[in-house]
Design brief:
By secondary structure, the chain is mainly alpha-helical. The protein contains 26 helices and 4 strands. The strands form 2 sheets. Strands 1-3 form a two-stranded parallel ribbon. It has a two-stranded antiparallel ribbon with strand order 2-4.
Length: about 575
């Protein structure tokens, strides 16, 4: 059975695009009306299936299989990451170690504005660069709530802060994928994105603090905000332009943390600011723990960081996949859908890479941390079971919304909207980031958005005489502004701060900021296209090959041996430091 996609069912691309946008508008409406996230996602997926069948003529079987394929991807690897991230955080809370972390953070600064910069912006960017897949929002949001932040502000701030690093997330995966689908070199796309997003990176920290405390209170810490944002933007620009797409977030995130901590050591403390509903002096700002105790408390996150850095290395992925990797086709779906030009729509098999998935790194880090924070395996399993119960509704939301995205893509609805935007001629540079925004809103992933629209962006740019690297990069840059309101991201944020069922509150908080930042990217792209085209990098198209050297797998196992040695060294150091503390106190 083969079926050909309809991309213009009404023979009027504007009308077809408008009808195709109905499910998008529908989920906007439901979330604004305070519908629970999982109900909004389920109803939207069902609406998309009905429209795919009735409007686009998609066979019932293919629409159902598309939804199933998407739901599986929503659960793994995306949901798997969220489980690991929240489990790791719950381990630190149940063991009592998060109380030590809270005291340590308060000793650096008890000011909520500066804590948000350190954790939501800088640490979150590092996590995005190393792991991605929602881990930054889950971990940073949970940490802020643990420090005493209002849960709604904690999740919203982390969602907005996650804007700046998304294009280089998961060790540069979105840029690498964009290069594969367009034959434009990775470095050229990295350079173009790195000449766009740093402008946003400077603005975002100030934007976050204004949202929390207002304009006047933000001016009190303007110098710290500039240190945080400018240091991040500089290293993001430098790394993306001279080292490539894999390390901008990791390096810029660490640099921003270090620069801000050093600055706060010498800066006169501003008047302490907290949320109005907080009682005064919620956390004592004097450090009451030894260095060994602080090291022990942070050890789960240190181990997590080491794991996700190694898990991001391609040789490690290939080594783990050589041992534990299951790939299978969705029966009846592969090869069954033809594009409008008659070619087969490529549908990837479902890849169950249960060892190399980022969520596995988080899970292993959490279990390895159990004895280091004073918990046994039975207690760890109990916490894990409670975590699964805590995340049951967010996981349903993830499965539903990704199922909707797959139906929209496979039926042709997504292509209808993309073709309408691509037909805007010389105005396309303005609309190009909107296409990336749409892709990330629907799929929750800048990588997926680049996969869907990268080729279309390049083709459309060439047709109007623009360098395709500009619009391909705009797809990635515009996509980052859609991340904060993607139903996937909203579900993750709500789960992390225990706001399950209140996803609409998060959506209504962030949606206007998403549109504002998208508009900024659109204007920057137009300026780059027609006013300052000299910023576009010079490059030559290359043939992209997916073949890896034969020694990659053995190289990966060597890296894993290094990882094992580092983890053992960390574990021994934590136990030794803790033992000395006990002896001194005894």
């Amino acid at each position: 059975m083969k079926w050909t996609q309809l991309t213009d069912p009404f023979h009027n691309i504007a009308l077809s695009a408008l009808v195709a946008a109905v499910p998008v508008l529908f989920i906007f409406f439901l979330l604004i009306k305070k519908t629970k996230g999982y109900w909004a996602s389920l109803l939207t997926m069902l609406l998309a299936i009905v429209m795919a069948i009735l409007v686009y003529g998609m066979p019932v079987k293919l629409s159902g299989l598309s939804a199933l394929h998407g739901a599986l991807y929503g659960l793994f690897p995306i949901g798997w990451v969220i489980i690991g991230a929240v489990f790791l955080f719950n381990v630190t809370v149940k063991s009592g170690q998060f109380e030590v972390i809270k005291n340590f953070m308060a000793s650096i600064t008890p000011d909520r504005r500066l804590q948000a910069l350190l954790i939501a912006f800088s640490f979150g960017a590092f996590l995005e660069g190393a792991a991605g897949f929602g881990a930054p929002v889950a971990i940073s949001g949970a940490m802020l709530v643990g420090l005493g932040f209002n849960p709604l502000y904690a999740a919203s701030i982390c969602l907005i802060a996650n804007t700046a690093p998304v294009a280089f997330g998961s060790v540069g995966t979105p840029i690498i994928i964009a290069a594969h689908v367009t034959d434009i070199p990775e470095l050229a796309i990295s350079q173009m994105v790195g000449r766009t997003l740093p402008f946003l990176s400077v603005v975002v920290p100030f934007y976050l603090v204004v949202l929390m405390a207002g304009f006047k209170k933000s001016l009190e810490v303007l110098d710290a905000i500039l240190v945080s944002g400018v240091s991040f933007a500089f290293f993001q620009w430098f790394t993306s332009n001279y080292l490539g797409p894999m390390l901008p977030d990791v390096i810029a995130g660490i640099a921003s943390i270090v620069c801000l901590m050093i600055f706060l050591k010498f800066r006169k403390p501003p008047p302490i600011w907290r949320f109005k509903e907080e009682p005064p002096q919620t956390i004592d700002s004097e450090l009451h723990y030894t260095g060994a105790e602080v090291f022990r408390a942070w050890s789960p996150f240190i181990i997590m960081t080491v794991f996700i850095i190694f898990w991001g290395l391609q040789p490690v992925k290939e080594a783990l996949n050589s041992v534990g990797f299951i790939k299978f086709d969705i029966s009846g779906l592969q090869g069954a859908i033809l594009k409008a030009d008659g070619s087969i729509l490529p549908i990837k098999p479902f890849e169950f890479n249960y060892l190399s998935a980022p969520g596995t790194a988080l899970l292993l880090a959490a279990f390895i941390s159990l004895p280091l924070v004073g918990l046994n395996l039975k207690q760890g399993l109990t916490i894990y079971g409670a975590t699964l119960m805590q995340l049951r509704y967010p996981l349903l939301t993830l499965a539903s919304v990704v199922g909707f995205a797959y139906v929209a893509n496979n039926s042709g609805m997504l292509i209808s909207m993309a073709m309408a935007l691509a037909s805007t001629g010389i105005f396309f540079p303005f609309f190009s980031p909107i296409l990336g925004w749409l892709g990330v809103f629907l799929t929750g992933s800048d990588t997926s958005s680049n996969t869907l629209f990268g080729k279309l962006q390049a083709t459309s740019a060439t047709a109007i005489g623009l360098d395709p690297v500009l619009t391909v990069a705009a797809n990635a840059s515009g996509g980052v502004t859609g991340k904060m309101i993607s139903p996937q991201s909203i579900a993750i944020g709500a789960a992390a701060v225990d706001l399950v069922g209140k996803e609409s509150d998060l959506f209504r908080f962030t949606v206007k900021h998403s549109f504002l930042m998208l508009f900024i990217i659109c204007i920057i792209t137009v300026i780059q296209a027609y006013i300052t085209p000299g910023v576009i990098p010079v490059y030559e198209k290359i043939e992209i090959t997916s073949e890896a050297p034969l020694n990659r797998i053995s190289e990966g196992f060597t890296y894993l041996q290094f990882l094992l040695g580092i983890v053992i060294l960390l574990a021994v150091s934590v136990r030794f430091a803790n033992r000395n503390t006990v002896i001194k106190n005894g």
